[in-house]
Amino acid sequence: MAVIDWDQFNENFQYYDKEIIKEVIDIFVDEYDNRIRDLQKNIEEKDFINLAFNAHSFKSVISNYMAPKAYELTRKLEELAKNKSEVEIPQIFAELKITTKELLFELKDYLQKAEK
């Protein structure tokens, strides 16, 4: 099952030039590793303020791609950070990494198909 809701994705980007869509996706791809690394560091350091900020920022980026599960996991991570709920954070972050890797794969696949 796809991480991205492709009907919503296509509706969201229907008026955009393919180059703009490619640029938006390229930014996500380029920033992905740093975003995950920052979240991991925040969790390890129990830096809940920056964890909430970085989760919120990542959630905003993910919202562009119509990926409801990834969006919900970042929302949950942000909420847990705000509440300093240490116990659940590692599990949610592990799920987020899996889901966003799938999102990354789908976006890269979309780019490859768009170039043909």
Question: What are the key terms here?
Answer:
single chain, 116 residues, mainly alpha, Four Helix Bundle (Hemerythrin (Met), subunit A), 78% helix, elongated
Task: Report a brief summary of the structure.
The chain is mostly helical. 78% of the residues lie in helices and 0% in strands.
Helix-strand category: mainly alpha
Order of helices and strands: HHHHH
Shape: elongated
Q: Report the helical percentage.
A: over 70%
Beta-strand percent range: under 5%
If you consult CATH, what is the topology? Four Helix Bundle (Hemerythrin (Met), subunit A)
How many domains, in number, for the residues? 1
Radius of gyration: 15 Å
Per DSSP E runs of 2 or more residues, the count of β-strands stands at 0
Number of helices, where a helix is a run of at least 4 consecutive DSSP H or I residues:
5
Residue stretches low in confidence (pLDDT < 50, at least 5 long) are none
Major β-sheet profile? none
Question: What does the average pLDDT come to?
Answer: 95
CATH class: Mainly Alpha
End-to-end CA span: 24 Å
Tell me what the CATH architecture is: Up-down Bundle
